[in-house]
Design a protein that fits this description.
Radius of gyration: 24 Å
Helix content: 25-40%
Strand content: 15-25%
Structural class: alpha+beta
Low-confidence stretches: 1-75
Oligomer: single chain
Largest sheet: 5 strands, mixed
Shape: globular
Mean pLDDT: 83
């Protein structure tokens, strides 16, 4: 069994860590100085073309990225050249994304999970994940930040920004540094410089170690951090970090809920009919020519899974996220292109409310872990589409296993009930024994309050979970709840235990740990609090040596699993389908709101569609 180090981190040590040289971004500059020897383990690759720095910006320094000797656990995310245009690409056509329900709002900054999907065609980010060359890419590309570098002690990033324009009803306005600063500061602080506040800021943890931002000029942004922060590009590449026009939204952040506003992405907003269609059309003045190829992108809302899946299977759309049963049928049909079953972008987790008695007793959380049969829930609720594992989800790859995650055996060693090879009857007996110690038995069952998000995937698993819980004398007081109200209750902590679906990027462990497990995070709904793991999460974020960092991350995961900070029921499993006439459509790591949804390089083979009679 893994032995844990004690991480009691004095402030002086954390400050000392900050003087290590950080990873530098893109390319080597012929006049750049050589980084100090301590930078030999710097984790970010450097390949993008260099630009001259503004006079007032810090001097540019570069380092050479090195991976651990076995190449298995790179410390952060490689930055690579943007792929050249596909010489076979065709212009024209409409990409129809079929869905069951539409957007709840347009705020990519406040969305807990999927909201950025529907605004992504209109907005670019400073960086982006490479969804253009392969499935499950972990590479980062330049976007509105064309070049960047870090000072010698790793505490100040300088970003050179591209010349681009916002489009608003046919008029244009230049994108400038203040717009990028507005985005980062509002997300990390939860309010803009007028004091206007976001309703919530789920991604604040990604950039909580940013201490300041400043504009040297309209094309140069500096980002100061409280120490080395090699995960910064991976965070800013997420689709949640959309660039918005400060002049339009500043002082009125609520406007983002129902107003697309000035666009800077490959498409322009065309029209929205609630519960029917959201349509974007090609931006003819897009800064990244020759893209986009498509004439339009349409999110078509069909009202039910049955209608969505049926329409897609007969070629009335280019993509739909089909249900599991229909996916198996579609595979047999042989008409649609598809992946095999892959481990995707998050999972379904159970969490006790650590602020409410008696549910905050560790024995209750352990009883939940012992009671729940993950494989049964996956098989009966999701047709076998899912994976059991640790706190980190796998990659978008067949049978993917997160590079950050403990091995299966290390997970099994945490406790008898974490070892899913042990008979479920014996695990459930342990649950009954733990609950009896708390005063609950068949004559006095536990009745914790919860709610089930519906219609959504948690509701599919709930019958299996109810059956398991009843076997150990837990009879939840529960109610179904629609999305908006359920999210409000999550953030308010109005539950005794919570069952929820979570989506996030795993390109760097920072995003998962700071969002879901740091004590003060909004997305740590049950308020699990552990000052030791808080210090360890901070430490791993500052550690440049990839092997040392991995040891800390493994120790963090062991503690979080031991404490049942969030109980993993399953990781997502999916098969992705697309029409046979669609090309260059791939999921990258961090799918929610990321590069994929911009549809920038996707193209349609019109001859193939005509050949299949689907014009």
């Amino acid at each position: 069994m893994r032995k844990l180090m004690r991480y009691v981190i004095p402030t002086t040590m954390l400050v000392a860590l900050g003087v290590l040289v950080a990873a530098c971004a893109p390319a080597a500059d012929p006049t750049a100085t050589t980084a100090p020897p301590t930078a030999t383990t710097a984790p970010v690759a450097t390949k993008a073309p260099a630009k001259a720095a503004a006079t007032a910006a810090p001097a540019k320094t570069t380092t050479t990225s090195t991976a651990p000797s076995d190449g298995k656990y790179p410390a952060s995310v490689a930055v690579v050249d943007t792929p050249a245009p596909n010489p076979n690409a065709q212009s024209g056509g409409v990409f129809r994304w079929l869905d069951r329900v539409g957007a709840s709002d347009w705020s990519g900054w406040e969305g807990a999970a999927s909201e950025p999907r529907y605004s992504s065609p209109a907005y670019d980010t400073l960086f982006e994940f490479n969804a253009f060359e392969e499935w499950g890419s972990q590479e980062i590309l330049p976007k509105l930040a064309t070049d960047w570098w870090v000072n010698e002690d790793g505490t100040e990033w300088t970003l050179k920004l591209k010349e681009a324009n916002f489009d608003w009803d046919g008029t244009t306005k230049a994108f400038i540094c203040e717009d990028a600063k507005f985005m980062i500061d509002t997300i990390r602080l939860g309010n803009d410089d007028t004091g206007d506040e976001l309703r919530r800021s789920p991604r604040a943890g990604y950039v909580q170690r940013v201490s300041d931002t400043a504009c040297v000029d309209d094309r140069t942004l500096t980002i100061s951090t409280d120490g080395v922060l090699p995960s910064l590009p991976a965070s800013l590449a997420m689709g949640y970090f959309q660039i918005r026009d400060k002049d339009y939204f500043g002082g009125n952040l609520e406007k983002m809920l129902d107003d697309i506003g000035p666009e800077i992405g490959p498409y322009l907003y065309d029209r929205y009919q609630p519960d029917e269609i959201l349509r974007f059309v090609r931006n003819p003045n897009y800064h990244n020519q020759p893209y986009p190829y498509l004439d339009a992108v349409e999110f078509k809302i069909l009202g039910s899974s049955t209608a969505r899946d049926a329409a897609f299977r007969v070629g009335r759309g280019e993509h739909a996220a089909m249900g599991t049963g229909t996916s198996l049928q579609a595979k047999e049909d042989g008409f649609l292109e598809h992946t095999d079953l892959i481990n995707t972008h998050g999972g379904r987790y159970v969490q006790a409310n650590f602020t409410r008695e008696p549910w905050n007793d560790p024995r209750f959380s352990q009883a939940l872990r012992c009671a729940l049969d993950s494989q049964k829930a996956i098989d009966t609720g999701y047709d076998g589409f899912g994976f059991y594992g640790g706190i980190f989800s796998g990659l978008e790859a067949v049978g993917g296993h997160s590079k950050w995650q403990l091995s299966d055996q290390e997970i099994y060693d945490i406790s008898f009930c974490h070892d899913v090879r042990n008979p479920i009857e014996e695990r459930q007996q342990k649950a009954r024994d733990l609950l009896k110690e708390l005063g609950f038995d068949e004559n006095n069952p536990a009745e914790p309050y919860t709610y089930i998000w519906t219609p959504a995937s948690p509701s599919y698993f709930w019958p299996s979970m109810l059956d398991d819980l009843a076997k150990v004398n837990i009879l939840p007081d529960w109610e179904p709840m629609e999305t908006a109200r359920a999210y409000d209750k999550n953030y308010a902590g109005e539950f005794d235990f919570n069952f929820w679906s979570y989506s996030v990027a795993r390109a760097d462990a920072d995003t998962w740990l700071f969002e879901h497990y740091i004590s003060h995070s909004d997305r740590n709904y049950g308020k699990y609090t552990n000052l030791e793991t808080d210090a360890m999460i901070d430490l791993q974020s500052r550690t440049l040596d990839p092997n040392e960092r991995m040891k800390i991350i493994n120790d963090i995961e062991t503690i979080l699993l031991r404490d049942n900070a969030k109980i993993v029921l399953s990781h997502y499993g999916s098969m992705y389908f697309w029409a046979p006439w669609v090309h260059d459509w791939r999921y990258s790591i961090g799918t929610t709101g990321a590069t994929l949804y911009r549809m920038e390089r996707v193209w349609i083979d019109s001859a193939k569609r005509a050949e299949l009679g689907k014009d």
